[in-house]
Design a protein that fits this description.
about 110 residues, five-stranded antiparallel sheet, globular
């Protein structure tokens, strides 16, 4: 009898991950913020109960934002959450694109006439 491979594990044992569509939406916002000079690095954690996309201003810092996917909250508040550096929940919902809009607000700056 062979031990089960990591590919034959049941879905309950597999770590949670962002799918291709979700990563595309996150990296679209991330790319715009990198181009604006606001962000410089990111990290992805696929944990047993949630997936986390951490955003850093510099490489050796704590993340300034975390985009979390927690499937356990799917039927409640929504499985997507944006968390700030201080641990406050900035936005939560069922639609990732809507939740990510809170991050795009930092790109909007007041323009003052010269």
């Amino acid at each position: 009898m062979q031990p089960p491979s990591r590919f034959s594990a049941s879905p309950a044992q597999m770590p949670v991950a962002f799918d291709r569509r979700e990563m595309s939406q996150i990296l679209s916002v991330y790319g715009r913020m990198v181009a604006a000079g606001e962000w410089r690095d990111y990290g992805i954690s696929n944990l047993r109960d949630m997936a986390v996309f951490s955003i850093f201003r510099r490489t050796a810092e704590h993340p300034i934002y975390r985009v979390e996917k927690d499937p356990r909250l799917r039927s409640k508040q929504g499985m997507y959450t944006v968390v700030g550096m201080d641990g406050r929940i900035l936005k939560r919902g069922h639609d990732l694109r809507t939740v990510l809009r809170v991050l795009e607000r930092t790109l909007i700056r007041a323009v003052t006439p010269d």
